[in-house]
Amino acid sequence: MSSSRYQITNLGTGKATEIETLVGSEGPEVLPLGSLYRDHGVFTFDPGFMATAACESAITYIDGDAGVLLYRGYPIDQLAQHSSHLEVAYLLLNGQLPTADQFKAFTGSITRHTMLNESLLRMFGGFHHDAHPMAMVSAVVASMAAFYHDTTDIYDPRHREIFAHRIIAKIPTIAAAAYKHAQGQPFVYPRNDLDYTSNMLNMFFAVPCEDYKVDPLHAKALDLLFILHADHEQNASTSTVRLAGSTGCNPYAAISAGVSALWGPAHGGANEAVLEMLADIGDVRNVPTFLKRVKDKDAGVRLMGFGHRVYKNFDPRATIIREMCHKVLGQLGGSDDPMFELALRLEEIALQDEYFVSRKLYPNVDFYSGIIYSALGIPRSMFTVMFALARTAGWVSHWLEMIADPAMKIGRPRQLYRGPARRDYVQMVKRK
Ligand code: ACO
């Protein structure tokens, strides 16, 4: 595709600026508008970044209309079918699929970094027993900056690599510690003889008083969910990591900012909200009344797990995960799970409803992920932590890409000011 030229003209003064679009390897052309302020003294205004690219990236590509998602050029369905979460993490971090030797070295490094400093582990004891796990995870990830600051010279590529491996290796350990603390159970140390997701399941569900054997089907299902959630270009949490990281802050602090941003129900918190919603609806017979409330703007109720800022046709991850839901629940003997039946019926009714059709609202990945997590025995409050665990690979890849870019600038948006114009201070005694 070749670039196009646009002309932006001030119709009052006649002053015009010609702007040539930038052309990426995929996707629409992009108008670089940075010169508008210099040439015309005006800012652009685009709340919510509806049509604004905030950076260049070579990691993930989404075509929301066609339902396409590529990690480093590879379609998500191919990765879901053939790859593993750690291989996808390597791909996202390094840009290429690993050779056998490269993968062995990578998994070896991730495996050797799984333990947490004991003082960091003791931090969990300071949290209230009913603290939300996302609050614990965000705080402990930020606190890593206080423990591993010796290797976080962000301008040293080797330090950056150690940081990347360390956070990807330790995030399951942190997630498991948050879970065990909430359960009041003793912490289970990582086992380096297990693969990434089996180790995570073992740290979650093993107890000292009896044997626990990881079910390979559970580990596989979790691994697939992690592949689907590993990256999603410039979403809210990734953009948060980039914005915080652009200040040159400690990278663990930047990742912690991403964890916090993910927590919200409009983003990663949706998987938890979907199951809460299904529990509230309770029965298929209540679906029409519930959808009536969703369509009533004054009720302030949304159909959680539906709609997406970018996908306006279908979410390719939802298609994969929907199939997996059937498979996993079938194999786990939960295909008659009333929550799943309710979700399917709700989806069916919503997809025929003019309100959802006209607004191009389709189920997103989180409509189903919570149902699978539930079937694996993972409690609702941990769902968003699972998402954070998977997305860490994406956050780190974006942070690395940004820090290594010589053109990196601190992220600093402009604003349309609508507050009071300049006015003079009034002494308190004279105020009315
Ligand atoms: N239920 C009911 N109505 C909806 C929903 C929904 N889930 N999503 C959007 N709409 C309606 C809006 O009310 C609006 O209607 P209007 O044009 O009559 O005012 C229209 O669809 C457009 O919605 P916006 O909020 O402008 O769309 P936006 O792109 O800003 O929002 C978002 C996307 C936040 C994901 C939204 O669809 C939503 O809140 N969905 C539910 C939460 C959810 O599932 N989040 C997970 C996202 S995926 C992820 O993070 C992995």
Q: Concise description?
A:
By secondary structure, this protein is mainly alpha-helical. It is 49% helix and 5% strand.
Instruction: Please indicate the percent range of residues in DSSP E strands (runs of 2 or more).
Output: under 5%
Q: Note the overall shape.
A: globular
Count of alpha and pi helical runs: 18
Instruction: From the alpha carbons, calculate the radius of gyration and give it in angstroms.
Output: 24 Å
Bound molecules: acetyl coenzyme *A
Low-confidence runs of at least 5 consecutive residues:
none
Strand order of the biggest β-sheet: 3-4-5
Mean pLDDT across every amino acid position: 94
Distance between the termini: 64 Å
> Which H/E pattern describes the elements?
EEHEEEHHHHHHHHHHHHHHHHH
Structural class computed from helices and strand pairing = mainly alpha
Main β-sheet description: 3 strands, antiparallel
Please provide the count of β strands: 5
- Binned, the helix content reads 40-55%
